Amino acid sequence: MFITRRIIHRTLIKTCVMKKLLSFALVLVFTHSFAQDKLIPPVKKGTRFTYVVHSGGQDVNFSAMIDSVAPGYMKLSWDIDGVGSGAWVMKQASLDKATNGYWDEPQPGSEVVLSDNQTILVLSKAQWEALQRDKKLVFDQQNFVVKSPSEQQLLKLQGKTVDATLLEAANSYRIWVLNNPAFPFILKIEGNPKGIDADLTSID
pTM for this one? Predict the structure, then answer.
């Protein structure tokens, strides 16, 4: 009788362990499948981000390409339909600690070096760290917090949801940021008080 009870007890333990392992395996499969459904675009030198910019009641095609990148340095070449092309340069201080965006009028044919507290189309290292640590950050002197996007707010390309984070300020100013610690690019801008919004159309 005692032996029988021991056998039953061992069988129950094995069954319980197997159930836990099966559950764990199902979670892994589900997580892997979910990750596969998300679009995680590779970003490197030569990658081009294309947008439609909405400003002053007009829609304009705009693209920015990573022209040069090195520790403490990034150069973006830009092209705007009907305006021309040029470049923006961000140096160590900008990439490390900037909290403001650059919104000045584009200067065709020029290579503009941004000030120490400005970046364009990309978060600074300090902002990215705040986003990961606190789920919030300061951008353009406003406090943004992470929001769970609705189905309509999901950012999609090629029929897949882009791996991005939605951030929102109290005045409904929203930005979508690519989940890439090396290149946390801003992919969409909505409700910008400065009157410049943007929708991503491709990453190549």
Answer: 0.81
The residues spanned by each domain of the chain are 2-38, 48-203
Contact 88, 110 (CB under 8 A): no
Question: Which of 124, 192, 194, 198 has its CA nearest to residue 155?
Answer: 198
- Cβ–Cβ contacts within 10 Å for residue 173, how many? 19
The tens digit of pLDDT for each residue in 68-112 reads: 999 999 999 999 999 999 999 999 999 999 999 999 999 999 999
Closest CA to 91 of 117, 128, 58, 52: 117
Neighbours of 201 (CB within 10 A): 13
Has residue 23 got a pLDDT over 50? no
